[in-house]
C-alpha cells in the first residue's frame, strides 16, 4: 500500500551546489546552492501521484532493504510526442543513505523494460539538474530530449529534459 508510512525510512535529502543550466543555447554548470528535502505536503502529493499512476495503468517499482523503502520509480502509461514514442519516467528516487549502491540503476532498468513492453521507443525524463543527478542519467544512456514535453518544462523550468532510447 502506498501511504505515508511507506516513506518513514526514506531520506529524500539532497544537498546541491552545482547544476546544469542552458544559457544562450549551450549547457554549462552554474553554482546553484540549495537543499532538496520533501516536507509532509510534498510526500502527500507524491503519494497521490503514485496512486494515480497505478490507477491509470502505469507502474511503480519499489526497492526495499529489510522491509524499508529505499528507492522507487514510476512510469506513466500514456504514449506521447509527435510520433507517440515516449513514455514518461515520472519519478525515480533513491534514499540518501542508499545512493551509489546500484538501486537507481536497477530501478531505471526495470522502468525501461516496462516502457518498452508497453510500446515506447523512448523513455522521457524531466530530470533534476544537479550535477550528481545528471551524472546518473548520463551513465544510464540518457541524452537531451529531441522533443520537449511542454507541461514538464512549465512545471519544472530548471529540469533537464532527457530521453533514453529503449
Give the secondary structure arrangement, pairings included.
Elements: E1 14-23, E2 26-36, H1 40-55, E3 59-65, E4 68-75, E5 86-94, H2 103-117, E6 122-127, H3 131-139, E7 143-144, H4 150-155, E8 160-165
Provide structural commentary.
The protein is an alpha+beta fold and 166 residues long. It has a single domain, classed as 3-Layer(aba) Sandwich (Aminopeptidase), CATH 3.40.630. Helix content is 28%, strand content 36%. It has four helices and eight strands, in the order E-E-H-E-E-E-H-E-H-E-H-E. It has helices at 40-55, 103-117, 131-139, 150-155; strands spanning 14-23, 26-36, 59-65, 68-75, 86-94, 122-127, 143-144, 160-165. The longest helix has 16 residues, at 40-55. The radius of gyration is 15 Å and the shape is globular. The two termini are 29 Å apart.
What is the structural class?
Answer: alpha+beta
Could you tell me the mean pLDDT? Answer: 97
How much helix is in the residues?
25-40%
**Tally the helices: what do you get?**
4
**β content, as a range?**
35-45%
Largest sheet report: 6 strands, mixed
Let me know the CATH homologous superfamily: Gcn5-related N-acetyltransferase (GNAT)
Number of domains: 1
In N-to-C order, the SSE pattern is EEHEEEHEHEHE
CATH top level is Alpha Beta
In short:
This protein has helices at residues 40-55, 103-117, 131-139, 150-155; strands at residues 14-23, 26-36, 59-65, 68-75, 86-94, 122-127, 143-144, 160-165. It has 166 residues and is of the alpha+beta class.
Amino acid at each position: 500500500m502506498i501511504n505515508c508510512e511507506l516513506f518513514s525510512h526514506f531520506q529524500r535529502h539532497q544537498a546541491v551546489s552545482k547544476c546544469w543550466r542552458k544559457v544562450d543555447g549551450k549547457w554549462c554548470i552554474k553554482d546553484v546552492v540549495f537543499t532538496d528535502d520533501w516536507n509532509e505536503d510534498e510526500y502527500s502529493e507524491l503519494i497521490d501521484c503514485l496512486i494515480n499512476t497505478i490507477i491509470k495503468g502505469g507502474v511503480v517499482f519499489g526497492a526495499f532493504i529489510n522491509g524499508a523503502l529505499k528507492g522507487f520509480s514510476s512510469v506513466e502509461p500514456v504514449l506521447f510526442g509527435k510520433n507517440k514514442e515516449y513514455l514518461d519516467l515520472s519519478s525515480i528516487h533513491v534514499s540518501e543513505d542508499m545512493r551509489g549502491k546500484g538501486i537507481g540503476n536497477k530501478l531505471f532498468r526495470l522502468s525501461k523494460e516496462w516502457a518498452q513492453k508497453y510500446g515506447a521507443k523512448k523513455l522521457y525524463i524531466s530530470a533534476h539538474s544537479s550535477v550528481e543527478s545528471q551524472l546518473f542519467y548520463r551513465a544510464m544512456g540518457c541524452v537531451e530530449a529531441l522533443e520537449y514535453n511542454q507541461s514538464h518544462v512549465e512545471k519544472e523550468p530548471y529540469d533537464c529534459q532527457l530521453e533514453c532510447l529503449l
